[in-house]
Amino acid sequence: MEHITSQSERVIRSVAGVIVVGLFVAFFILSAPARKNDLDFAEFYSAGQIVRQGLGRELYNLNLQYEFQSKIAVVHVFYNHPPFEALLFVPLTYCNYQVAYTIWTLVSVALLALAALMLKSHSNVSLAISQYARMRADFGLHLVLFLTFAPATTALLLGQDSMLMLFLYTLVFVLLVQGKDFRAGCILACGLFKFQLIVPFAIILLLRRKWSVMKGFAVAASLLVFVSVAISGFRVLVEYPRLLLLDRTYQQVGGFDPAFMPNIRGFFYLLGGRRLPPSIFASGVTVLSLLLAWFSAKNWRDEQLAWSFSLSVLAGLLASYHVYNYDLTLLLLPLAIICGELAKRRCLLSAPIVFTFALVLLFIPPLHRLLLLHSIYGLMSIVIVTFFFVVLRLNRLDLIDGKAAG
């Protein structure tokens, strides 16, 4: 009888999970026409069109991008990722814009589901959710929690590529756990479409002399450079950096306001950095970011891979020069690992109060919206810093306990 009841409960939870996920996906897709002028997906779709029509050498011609984007929506952002990512969207250009967005949304949800599934299998996140919810945590509950995380929801609404980044980073973690360092490096390089989220983490691995990982990273990165040159010619090696660093039109239209960045740059910008000369402010942020990377590398312990990896991902987000609300989707990875490790040690519910408070704040969707509306989202970096130092402390305590037990 108990077995039948348990089976019925699992079926009910599974059906409920499918319904919730289905409603979310339906909302993303059905509301897209009304939001088409706000979708970042337009930049990816138009980049795919440009490459498909053999105009890859003009990919960073803003006038050309404007011409393509204006046919589908009001232009509010330009494509600023490396050429190789545009290839992902070429197949979607054979569909109309609405259908392409629908497909991309479904692909993104699938990537989120795969990341959740990998974490369920290679971390103790199920145990953590069970302890918090006081009920059995099946895969449906994992996916609903991931899907309702505000940055992840925003990424799906905008048609961003954040789910792909989360999937790649999660796969890197799994491969490192399995001791497949070279493959982990190759997969890490695949995330260079947002190099600002990859380079700080790669620097930490380099400082730790993780040579096998770095070899894989170098091989895959070289191939991606080759692909980018094949798409846009050798001139892209000059034009792409020029676009990011020197093009005033791009800087104005791109609207890269540090006040919206939940990282070191955003925090100190809100604290008064906006009053400093740009060169001095940028130099200060760079120095602090490098120090954070060095500090994280110094505290990396192979025998404490879960803690060390989580610490480094948090450091990478803080040190990233460009990071926005939807990029915090990546936080799901270290948080799942951290909570799982605490649950395994039966101390999740008695974790430091500052950790629990920061976790609650992060999972309050209106708070994200409020900080964005008031142009102070950079303050969210305080939450990430809190996680960083809590994990650092737990990592050291765990190492001490491990040595004592030994």
For the structure shown, list the relevant keywords.
21 helices, mainly alpha, 71% helix, 406 residues, disordered C terminus
Structure description:
The chain is mostly helical. The protein has one domain. 71% of the residues lie in helices and 0% in strands. The chain contains 21 helices and no strands. It has helices spanning 2-30, 41-52, 62-69, 83-89, 97-122, 125-133, 139-147, 150-158, 162-177, 181-189, 195-207, 211-232, 236-245, 248-254, 264-271, 278-298, 305-319, 332-344, 353-362, 365-373, 381-405. 44% of the residues are buried. Residues 402-406 have low confidence and may be disordered.
* Helix coverage percent: over 70%
Global structural class: mainly alpha
How would a crystallographer describe the biggest sheet?
none
Q: Which shape, going by the Cα principal axes?
A: globular
Q: What distance separates the N and C termini?
A: 46 Å
Order of helices and strands: HHHHHHHHHHHHHHHHHHHHH
Mean pLDDT: 89
Structurally, the number of domains stands at: 1
Number of H- or I-type helical stretches: 21
- Rg from alpha-carbon coordinates: 21 Å
How would you classify the quaternary structure? single chain
> What is the number of strand segments?
0
Stretches with pLDDT under 50, minimum 5 residues = 402-406
